[in-house]
Amino acid sequence: MREELAAKKAGEIRGMFGRIAPRYDLLNRVLSLGRDVSWRRLVSRRVAAARPARVLDVCAGTGDLALALPDGLAAGVDFCLPMLAVARRKAAGRGRRLPLFAADALRLPIPNARVDVVTVAFGVRNFEDLEAGLAELVRVLRPGGTLLVLEFSRPRGPLAPLLEWWVRTIPPRIGRLLSGDPEAYSYLPASVGTFPDTDALCRTLTHAGLEEVKATALTGGVASLYEGVRPVDLKTRAREDG
């Protein structure tokens, strides 16, 4: 059952997220033990350190990560229109500028090497083709640009059994109570359990063309922040140094 839930296709996942869009922020709070707000602040600090002119937030969902960045810095893209509608309302309610557009992360309508930083929060584990999706994120990065991926992961250490029990058990129960859509709230924890571990994802990011790849465990490994840099080739470096 777990593998069947995690093997959903893009169209099914889009429909599922559309159904739970009004409650999605609550699900993230439950899955993260309330820590996802501080995790996004960490991503925001990493973005600020890169001093980007253009940031693309992929799988922007309800806009939480893009809205954690300085006003007007980021644009958001997601393949689920109901999620983008929530993000638009949140941005308007806060008086924020947040350009949003609908597109599949595996086929971004953006030219090569156009953005300085790409961010993704809790999205890459839903890619229908993980390697192709990561390659697409790298494609739109300029040489020297940074990819930041915030994603749920399998906990490690002495608290791992308790944390895994929480992620596997509590969100589906709360989902059934609040949404009437138990399948959606079962899929999301199941997708964490079948996603590559941190070492495997770091190797996949390196294979996608990034260097300086690293992972930082957050809250006992409930989530991880992955970072990587698109290499600057010799011709590009010569132009920049000249």
Q: Which structural class do the helices and strands define?
A: alpha/beta
Tell me the radius of gyration.
17 Å
Largest sheet: 7 strands, mixed
Number of helices: 11
How does CATH name the architecture? 3-Layer(aba) Sandwich
Q: Report the CATH topology name.
A: Rossmann fold
Spatial order of strands in the largest sheet: 3-2-1-4-5-7-6
Q: How would you name the CATH homologous superfamily?
A: Vaccinia Virus protein VP39
Q: How helix-rich are the residues, as a percent range?
A: 40-55%
Q: What would CATH call the class?
A: Alpha Beta
Q: Name the helix and strand elements from N-terminus to C-terminus, one letter apiece.
A: HHHHEHEHEEHEHHHEEH
Per-chain topology:
Elements: H1 2-6, H2 10-20, H3 24-31, H4 36-50, E1 55-58, H5 64-67, E2 74-78, H6 81-93, E3 100-102, E4 115-121, H7 130-140, E5 141-152, H8 160-178, H9 182-193, H10 198-207, E6 211-218, E7 223-229, H11 234-241
Parallel strand pairs: 1-2, 1-4, 2-3, 4-5
Antiparallel strand pairs: 5-7, 6-7
Helix pairs in contact: 8-9
